[in-house]
């Protein structure tokens, strides 16, 4: 079990980065031959990426049905997805062959978000290193970083006028 950080901290990422959400949905449990390979493929891909610091993969959070991934850039993510020498491409080809025309047995989805430097905020309190903080640097959430607004580095026009 990871050590709990007994204070409020936030994550600091230098430059832009990408958040990639990916998941699957089992629509027909009895069609295990179609969804089990999908379920088993992702942990292998994560291990492959963790062994390759040059891949641009920063880290991940894995839960049942959804994986959050952090990447240095969209170009790094796309390069991995399209590289026929890495695990993703053959798994994608196999999935499409296995599912064929029947897209009703298992669903897959993903969402990609480009995050500009300074346009994110997060806080962790009484947590082990987790999420973006685990994928980047961790700093104390103190001073300007004590509030969500401060972490975003923003002030409202109303506050400036008063």
Average residue pLDDT = 88
Overall structural class, as computed from helix and strand content, comes to alpha+beta
What form results from the Cα inertia axes? elongated
The amount of helix comes to: 25-40%
| Biggest beta sheet summary | 4 strands, antiparallel
Q: Which sequence of SSEs, written as H and E, runs from N to C?
A: EEHEEHHEEHEHH
First-residue to last-residue Cα separation: 48 Å
Q: What strand line-up does the widest sheet have?
A: 3-4-2-5
Low-confidence stretches: 155-162
Summarize the topology:
Elements (H helix, E strand, L loop, with lengths): L3 E9 L4 E10 L5 H19 L6 E7 L2 E6 L2 H9 L5 H12 L6 E10 L8 E5 L2 H5 L1 E4 L7 H5 L4 H5 L1
Helix pairs in contact: 1-3
What structural keywords apply?
three-stranded antiparallel β-sheet; disordered C terminus; elongated; single chain; 7 strands; four-stranded antiparallel β-sheet; 162 residues; alpha+beta
Structure description:
Helices cover 34% and strands 31% of the residues. With 162 residues, it is α+β, with helices and mostly antiparallel strands. It has a 4-stranded antiparallel β-sheet. A hairpin with a 2-residue loop joins strand 3 and strand 4 (66-71). Helix 1 runs antiparallel to helix 3. Mean pLDDT is 88; it is low at 155-162.
């Amino acid at each position: 079990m990871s050590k709990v950080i007994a204070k409020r901290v936030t994550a600091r990422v230098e430059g832009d980065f990408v958040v990639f959400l990916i998941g699957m949905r089992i629509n027909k449990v009895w069609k295990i031959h179609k969804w089990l390979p999908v379920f088993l493929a992702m942990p292998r891909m994560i291990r492959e990426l963790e062994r390759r610091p040059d891949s641009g993969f920063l880290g991940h959070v894995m839960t049942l049905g959804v994986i959050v991934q952090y990447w240095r850039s969209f170009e790094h993510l796309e390069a991995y997805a399209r590289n026929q020498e890495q695990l993703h491409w053959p798994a994608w080809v196999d999935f499409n062959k296995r599912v064929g025309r029947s897209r009703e047995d298992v669903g897959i989805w993903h969402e990609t978000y480009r995050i500009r430097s300074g346009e994110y905020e997060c806080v962790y309190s009484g947590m082990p290193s987790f999420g973006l903080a685990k994928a980047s640097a961790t700093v104390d959430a103190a001073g300007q970083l004590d509030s969500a607004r401060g972490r975003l580095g923003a002030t409202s026009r109303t506050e400036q006028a008063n």
